[in-house]
């Protein structure tokens, strides 16, 4: 015993390793891994042919089309808005900047159901924005635009918060050099700044897209949920569950999971590219 | 700076940023309170004090009271194991901890249903022992545990890694026990990050919707958490009731953001 303790001390190993690692592994197995394995097992049971039959059914295809289209629009909105916000928050000083910065976290802090409720009423026929829009003939609620809007809201922080730190770390010497050489501000942005933040920007967009594809809470309120028209994939999975069609629900869930994992892998690649970029710039 | 020669552009961009944020973020936020209080404070109070709403508030509080401490312990254990020790598979373990972030909550709900539901893998065994997990409190707690599992760990882990373990090793040499080291050396170093993780975990736990809606069964007055109750009121066309219920969660979110801003500066040191 004393020998063991002495050896541990000699190796300078901290106590509590078995307990903490054991707790971590058991907890992750029970809470995370086993449930995910249950879905994968269900997928194996369905088989590739069955999976394809469910995924390629007209209603599922329509749901995937709606989901991907709306998520793409939402990501495009956030790509531009997020870049603008990151730029303004890093480069300029103005009163209220800290509040503006804190506001970027609202979509994460606000429960998605609350966001969905508020957006639906806000853009509804009697809402602050909905009333003038509908007077002008533009309908947002219960359309693809509404779905995209809800997805855009819930994924606002991703692009801002991935671009912001990279922009902060940018070496000002390069810009100064470009300026001395007579480059115009826009040229400096396009040729010097943008290439440096490109990997982080793309990574942020990818995570935003992944999040939008799986968004449920905010979307169900505003979507109208009309099959073939405004029904998203996550909702179709939910409807299949309510019909006790666990196989149908699982196949759609697996397809969404695969899409999310691919996007996550892409975002990780982009982020490691960003790290290398950062290393090279210094 | 770069744009000092052209003062118009910064002003234009700032104005655009503020304007878009007002439309995209501030308006939906302000609208919640505007609608909740539209019919006056008396109606607002009535809506909040409605028995079904009160029950939903209680259930959501109960779930958070179970979930947050459990994930706090998990987060500390995971960070201690990964940051303070070297062992093969640390990278894999860190990836596994992040899994819940990349899985849509509704998919998480389906995973749990496939495991514990009537037709699920453990369904027959649970039925035999008369244990109800799905469409009951345990199911709601389990899914919320899944969704919020990474929050504390991901705040504490990088900090513990950055701080290294020299102080702890010194304490070992001085003969301190594991618990003493944790309480006297590690905890004071990570307390703000820990609190920060708890704030984020709580905010997420009380707001969880997709996963919970799969496993709760929406039984009015029984398994209806606050976010689910908002949907129920909305579908009942009780919009002012829905907004009143939503305003409580919004206030909580704002408190979480203020705490987050306060803790952000202190986290590192």
UniProtKB/TrEMBL annotation, chain A:
Q: What does this protein do?
A: Part of the ABC transporter complex (TC 3.A.1.6.1) involved in sulfate/thiosulfate import. Part of the ABC transporter complex CysAWTP (TC 3.A.1.6.1) involved in sulfate/thiosulfate import. Probably responsible for the translocation of the substrate across the membrane.
Assembly and partners are described as:
The complex is composed of two ATP-binding proteins (CysA), two transmembrane proteins (CysT and CysW) and a solute-binding protein (CysP).
Membrane spanning residue stretches? 20-41, 62-88, 108-128, 140-160, 188-209, 216-239, 251-270
**Annotated protein name in UniProt:** Sulfate transport system permease protein CysT
Query: Where does this protein have coiled-coil stretches?
Result: none
**The species this protein was found in:** Cereibacter changlensis JA139
What Gene Ontology cellular component terms go with this record?
A: plasma membrane
GO molecular function per UniProt: ABC-type sulfate transporter activity
Q: Which residues form the ABC transmembrane type-1 domain?
A: 64-267
Q: Where in the cell is it found?
A: Cell membrane
Major localization listed first in the record, in broad terms? membrane
Q: What broad taxonomic lineage does this protein's source fall under? A: Bacteria, Pseudomonadati, Pseudomonadota, Alphaproteobacteria, Rhodobacterales
Automatic annotation (TrEMBL), chain B:
The subcellular localization recorded is: Cell membrane
Give the membrane topology. Answer: Multi-pass membrane protein
TM ranges are 12-34, 54-80, 92-115, 135-153, 193-219, 239-263
GO molecular function per UniProt: ABC-type sulfate transporter activity
Alphabetically list the UniProt keywords.
Membrane, Sulfate transport, Transmembrane, Transmembrane helix, Transport
Please list the coiled coil stretches. Answer: none
Pfam families with a match to the protein in the record: BPD_transp_1 (PF00528)
Q: What does this protein do?
A: Part of the ABC transporter complex CysAWTP (TC 3.A.1.6.1) involved in sulfate/thiosulfate import. Probably responsible for the translocation of the substrate across the membrane.
Assembly information from the UniProt record: The complex is composed of two ATP-binding proteins (CysA), two transmembrane proteins (CysT and CysW) and a solute-binding protein (CysP).
Q: What is this protein called?
A: Sulfate ABC transporter permease subunit CysW
């Amino acid at each position: 015993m004393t020998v063991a303790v002495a050896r541990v001390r000699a190796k300078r190993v901290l106590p509590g390793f078995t307990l903490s690692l054991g707790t971590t592994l058991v907890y992750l197995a029970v809470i995370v891994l086993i449930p995910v394995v249950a879905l994968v097992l269900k997928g194996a049971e369905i088989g590739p042919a069955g999976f394809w039959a469910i995924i390629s059914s007209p209603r599922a295809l329509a749901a995937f089309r709606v989901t991907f289209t709306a998520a793409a629009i939402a990501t495009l909105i956030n790509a531009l808005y997020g870049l603008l916000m990151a730029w303004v928050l890093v480069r300029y000083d103005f009163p209220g900047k800290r509040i503006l910065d804190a506001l970027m976290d609202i979509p994460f802090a606000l429960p998605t159901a609350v966001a969905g409720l508020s957006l639906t009423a806000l853009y509804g026929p009697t809402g602050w924005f909905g009333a003038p829009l509908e007077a002008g003939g533009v309908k947002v609620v219960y359309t693809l635009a509404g779905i995209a809007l809800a997805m855009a809201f819930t994924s606002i922080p991703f692009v801002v918060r991935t671009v912001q730190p990279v922009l902060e770390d940018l070496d000002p010497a390069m810009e100064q050099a470009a300026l001395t050489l007579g480059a115009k501000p826009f040229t400096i942005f396009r040729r010097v700044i943008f290439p440096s933040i490109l990997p982080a920007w793309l990574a942020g967009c990818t995570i935003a897209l992944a999040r939008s594809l799986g968004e449920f809470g905010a979307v169900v309120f505003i979507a109208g949920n009309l099959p073939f028209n405004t029904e998203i994939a996550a909702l179709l999975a939910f409807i299949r569950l309510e019909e006790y069609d666990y196989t149908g629900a699982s196949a759609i869930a697996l397809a969404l999971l695969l899409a999310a994992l691919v996007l996550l892998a892409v975002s990780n690649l982009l982020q490691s590219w960003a790290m290398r970029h950062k290393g090279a710039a210094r | 700076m770069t744009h000092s020669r052209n003062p118009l552009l910064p002003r234009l961009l700032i104005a655009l940023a503020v304007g878009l944020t007002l439309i995209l973020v501030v308006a939906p936020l302000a609208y919640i309170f505007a609608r909740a209080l539209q019919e006056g404070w008396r109606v607002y109070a009535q809506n909040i004090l409605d028995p079904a709403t009160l029950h939903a508030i209680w259930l959501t509080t109960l779930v958070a009271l179970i979930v947050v401490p459990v994930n706090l312990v998990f987060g500390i254990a995971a960070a201690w194991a990964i940051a303070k020790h070297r062992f093969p598979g640390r990278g894999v373990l860190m990836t596994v901890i992040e899994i819940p972030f990349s899985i849509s909550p509704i998919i998480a709900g389906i995973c749990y249903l496939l495991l514990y539901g009537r037709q699920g893998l453990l369904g027959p065994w649970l039925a035999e022992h008369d244990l109800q997990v799905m469409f009951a409190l345990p199911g709601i707690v389990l899914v919320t545990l899944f969704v919020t599992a990474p929050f504390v760990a991901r705040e504490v882990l990088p900090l513990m890694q950055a701080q290294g373990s020299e102080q702890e090793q010194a304490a070992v040499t001085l003969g301190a026990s594991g618990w003493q080291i944790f309480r006297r050396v590690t905890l004071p170093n990570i307390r703000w990050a820990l609190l920060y993780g708890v704030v984020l975990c709580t905010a997420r736990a009380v707001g969880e919707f997709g996963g919970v809606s799969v496993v709760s069964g929406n039984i009015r007055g029984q398994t209806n958490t606050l976010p689910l109750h908002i949907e129920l009121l909305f579908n009942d066309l009780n919009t002012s009731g829905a907004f009143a219920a939503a305003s409580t969660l919004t206030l909580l979110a704002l408190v979480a953001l203020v705490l987050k801003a306060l803790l952000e500066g202190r986290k590192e040191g």
